[in-house]
Amino acid sequence: MLTENRYYSYNQGLLPDGCTYCVRGEKLVLFVTGLCPRSCYFCPISDKKYGHDVIYANERKAASTEDIITESRLMQAKGAGITGGDPLMKLERTLKHILELKKTFGPSFHLHLYTSLNFVTEKTLKRLFEAGLDEIRFHFDFDEERFWKNITLAKKFSWKVGAEIPCIPTKVEEMKKVADVIAGYVDFLNLNELERADNEHSHLDEMGFKTIHQYSYATEGSVEAGLALAEYVKEKKYSYSVHLCTAKLKEKVQLRNRMKREAAMVKRSFDKVDDEGILTRGALYLPELAPGFKYREKLESADKEKMTATLQPLLEKIKKESALKDTDFCIDQEKPRILLSEFNARKFKRKFKTSGLLVAIVQEMPTADQLEIEVDFLD
After folding, report:
1. Counting Cβ atoms within 10 Å, is residue 235 exposed (0-12), middle (13-18) or buried (19+)?
2. In the prediction, which pLDDT does 367 show?
3. Residues of the chain under the 70 pLDDT cut
């Protein structure tokens, strides 16, 4: 039986190249579209993406390739994982992004892509390969086998080929069947610990799956199913490697490493950064757009340009009254507010309040959406 590695996952043979970059936090997640030919009951995609033709680079909604390149630079990415939905539903868009990323960052910028087998043809694979894709991963549908034969087309090209499936405790025999079918056609099999998702379209709860404890999204029996499959592959003496990717790896290693990389690039001189890449800073809010009930919805609909214009004279007034330098403050145009150090927020809170602003100490992620971890309003 496999033992846990230093990434809190399990591997039989070498990690796939895409996974190696990923665990170091070096991979941009490029979400090409929320459209997909399948409707899996375990799909983890959020409701704002599922079934919607939207593009995201990590947490940044992307309107152009330049947005994707900007996010790649901010996290010092060494590659990208291209996902969805199914990227092949928007093939021309996917090819364009592959070409632009390789052109901008060079041939060593590692690109891997996840797709179903539904749209796989030799012509499509050839176009992806010639665009510069380094690694392709196929998701097998346990309940629909008619596309499985398409896996035989991928090894006609000199890239890395993998299969990727969720470890569903009730589908061990189906998992073994996939393990048999891919032999001779793939370099690796990636297994994902099954996780419950906070969305409206996954149905693990209704199907009787339980999490390992109340604070986890990981499903009971999933890792055990994956380890059993790895043992099956070993007994069959299949040549491909196996990697069982756990929820713990994603949370404690992959995400943490990516946060550190992003924090190093986006932090301002007055920000504090902890060991996990979380930013601590002071923030001055207009009362009508302060964190609280439906804050994210308010941000979506806010006239940010107008609110930024409202903040500008207040910022000038604050600078004059507190005798601080220009570098001690800035206006955040994405979440209209004034940012400063925790120290100065506490020291001058009374002056700021007389300007009609709410004063808070915030802890938030260094991502494009600056997701709030904690907001402490000062009395």
Report:
1. exposed
2. 95
3. none
Helix (H, G, I), strand (E, B) or coil at 283: strand
Domains and CATH numbers, the chain: 10-263 (3.20.20.70), 267-377 (no CATH)
Q: Which residue has the tokens 């009609």?
A: 356
User: For position 205, what pLDDT does the model report?
Assistant: 84
Residue in the structure block whose two tokens are 């499509």: 124
- Say how far apart CA 54 and CA 236 lie, in whole Å: 42
Residue 148 near residue 186 (C-beta atoms within 8 A): no
Place of tokens 């928007």: 90
Kindly give, in sequence order, each residue whose CB lies less than 8 Å from that of residue 108, ignoring residues fewer than 6 positions away: 78
Cα separation, 224 vs 201, in Å, equals: 26
Instruction: Assess contact for 166 and 223: CB atoms under 8 A.
Output: no
Q: Give the angle subtended at the CA of 137 by the CAs of 133 and 139, to the nearest 5°.
A: 145
* CA nearest neighbour of 84 among 119, 126, 51, 47: 51
Instruction: State the pLDDT at residue 284.
Output: 97
How far is residue 111's CA from residue 77's CA, in Å, rounded to a whole number? 11
Are 33 and 187 in contact by the 8 Å Cβ rule? The answer is no
- Tell me how far apart the alpha carbons of residues 76 and 26 are, in angstroms, rounded to a whole number: 7
Distance CA 293, CA 378 (A): 18
Rg (alpha carbons) of the chain, rounded to whole number: 23
Bridge partner list, 166: 192
Task: Give me 133's structure tokens.
Answer: 């894709």
DSSP letters, 31-73, are EEES--S---TT----TTTTTS---EETTEE-SSHHHHHHHHH
Q: Residue 28 is encoded by which pair of tokens?
A: 């941009």
pLDDT at position 321, please?
A: 86
Rounded to an integer, what is the distance from CA 296 to the centroid of its chain?
19
